[in-house]
Every structure is written in C-alpha cells, then in structure tokens.
TrEMBL record:
Domain (XdhC- CoxI) ranges: 15-75
Domain spans labelled XdhC Rossmann: 179-321
Gene3D superfamilies: NAD(P)-binding Rossmann-like Domain
Protein name as catalogued: XdhC family protein
C-alpha cells in the first residue's frame, strides 16, 4: 500500500470523528486501460474536499458534483435538493466509462472502464482501529459486508489483491513504505524529497553535527545516533529500504551489514565501481562476509542515465528503488556498473538485472 492510502484513511477518520459526512470510494473492477489499479481508494467529504484518487481528476469531479451539491452553498443549493448530498445506507456500485462518450468525458483511456464501491459514512471506530494498526506497522485486511457496510478487521500475513464476492469486499492495507537514509548531505536532501512524494516515510541518520545541524527537509525524521544502532532499532521489513550515502566506511559499512540481516527490500550504498568493490572486499576481509552473503547489497546504486549532479543522481537512485519495490525486472544495460563497463569498452554481460531484492 502506498503512503497515499494511509493519508486517505487518516483524513477520512478525522472527518468522521468530527461528525462530518463522507464516503470512501474503492476501485473494485477495471476493463481495458485504467488510470488507477484495483484497490485504489479516495475519500470525499460533505464539503467537497477530496483525498486520494480513483482516476486522476475527472471521476473525482463527477463524484463531488453528484454527492456534495447540497453543501456547495449559493442560490442553486435549495433548488438542487438534498438528494444530491452524500446518501445513507449500504454500499453501492457505480461504473464509469461504459460508453465511448463517457470514457471521453471522464478522461479514461480508450476503451477503459472502471467500477467503484462507494461506502457512505464509514464507521469512525473501525477506521480508528485500522489506522492504529497501520501505525503499529501491522498488515491488515478490511472486509466490508455489502448488505449493510459492516466492517471486519483481521491481521494479514502477506499482501494480497483485492477480493470481491457477492457478499464482501476485502482489501489488504499495509503500513507505510519506509526509507532509511544514512547521511544528511545534499544528495540525501533530493532523495528524501523524492521519496516523500513517492509515498515513503523517510528517516535520515547522521551523527556528524556539521551535516545534521544544517538538515532542513520538512516531513523527514532526523536522528543523530550511530547508523548501525539506528538500523537495529528501525527493524527494517519488506516495506523498508536502507541506503547509505556518506562515502564514509565507518558510517556506511556497519549500517549496511545490519540492514543485510533484515528483510529490507532494498539495501544499497553510494559510490563508484571501484569504491563499491573496495567496500565488498572490506566486508569480506574484516567482517566475515562472503560473495553469497553480499548478494543483496546493491552498488553502484541507481539506473544509468548519465547523471552527474546530486538531483540527477537522486532521480537515478529513486528510479531503481521504485523498480525494486514494484517488482520490475530492469534490463542489465540499465545498471550503472554494466552501462559504464560497456561505455569504457569492458565486457558485456547478457540477461536482465533482477528488479526484486
């Protein structure tokens, strides 16, 4: 689950806890091309406020128009009547893009159709329990009984696709994706900012006062503890990536060693081809590692885009992290080391670069 879904649920809980009417929309089916995948959610408040997305704009506008006219104010409100407010009752389904005209009207790709389940005034108690569980890092299944909207929450053992039956809708929600960055330099500022926009909860660790004192990226947690201690206390899981960016072996190496003992989906360190080979040699010689135990250690990190500046390098690294997160297998010639070997006239290796941890 993206961080956006956590934001949707938290915002919806805030609205409902304040006694405001609201609905939760979930993409339950798609046909053809669709701008958002099955399981995507958005929330709509009675005053027209929206958080999340099911289409990227046009369908959200239609839902606002359908369900919040009674709260729009102005001379037309009384004429429109209360039948346009958020209704009460059990969940209902709505389809968009059934015809070519509708697909054009709602900005859907050619031939695209999607179906939403609308839940009216979700129970704040159940929302609070779900948000609390996610805040504790637990993976949860939320099952909605279609007959009356009653919600059941159960712990989940693994991520799962949305399941729709004639009786229930079950959607799996997981905690936020997390990124732990070692080092608070300029590259970290760009990478942290991109990670925030990509839905990650970001923590930066740097015990060096000259770097941590100047840190100023809103929304990022900063700690000055030693990196290896931070990795241990962070408890990286399958929704966590750890990236070392200091170029200082005293800070990077131990943190990477600890991260490799966890389920983090991405563990990598900044550095040139030569520096990464030197890091691997140090870890093997001084810390008892083997080529097999270092197989998950990524470096040089990023995809090859000819990056030179800190923001370009951050784009390269963020792209690789997202590819791994999304289970995308990248062509081998997109790997930094391979691309540079080819550029420099070195050996060419065949096959893909695996995009999974």
């Amino acid at each position: 689950m993206d961080n956006l879904d956590v934001t949707v649920l938290r915002t919806l809980l805030r609205w409902r806890s304040a006694g405001r009417r609201a609905l939760l929309a979930t993409v339950v089916r798609t046909w053809g091309s669709s701008p958002r995948p099955v399981g995507s959610i958005m929330a709509l408040c009675e005053d027209g406020a929206v958080v999340g997305s099911v289409s990227g704009g046009c369908i959200e506008d239609d839902l606002i128009d359908r369900h919040t006219r009674a709260y729009a104010g102005g001379s037309g409100t009384a004429d429109r009547g209360l039948d346009h407010c958020i209704p009460s009752g059990p969940p209902s389904f709505v389809k968009y893009g059934v015809t070519a005209d509708e697909a054009h009207r709602f900005g859907l790709p050619c031939g695209g159709t999607l179906e939403l389940l609308l839940e009216y005034d979700p129970d704040p108690g159940a929302l609070a329990a779900l948000v609390a569980a996610l805040g504790e890092g637990r993976l949860m299944q939320r099952s909605v009984r279609l007959a009356d909207g009653q919600v059941t929450l159960t712990p989940a053992q693994a991520p799962a696709d949305l399941v729709l039956t004639p009786e229930h809708l079950t959607n799996t929600f997981g905690p936020e994706y997390r990124m732990l960055l070692i080092g608070a330099g300029q590259l970290t500022e760009y990478l942290a900012t991109m990670a925030l926009f990509s839905g990650f909860s970001v923590t930066v660790c740097d015990p060096r006062e000259e770097y941590s004192r100047a840190w100023n990226v809103p929304g990022v947690t900063l700690t000055r503890e030693m990196p290896d201690d931070v990795v241990l206390s962070f408890h990286p899981d399958r929704r966590t990536c750890v990236v070392a960016l200091t170029h200082d072996p005293k800070l990077d190496d131990l943190a990477l060693l600890e991260a490799l003992q966890t389920e983090a989906f991405y563990v990598g360190g900044i550095g040139s081809r030569r520096n990464n080979e030197a890091r691997r040699a140090r870890l093997i010689e001084h810390f008892g590692q083997t080529e097999a135990s270092l197989q998950r250690l990524r470096g040089p990190i990023g995809i090859y885009i000819g990056s030179k500046t800190p923001p370009e390098i951050a784009v390269s690294v963020m792209a690789e992290i997202l590819a791994v997160k999304n289970g995308v297998t990248l062509p081998r010639d997109m790997a930094v080391a391979e691309a540079k070997n080819v550029r420099d006239g070195g050996p060419v290796l065949s096959g893909p670069v695996c995009g999974v941890g």
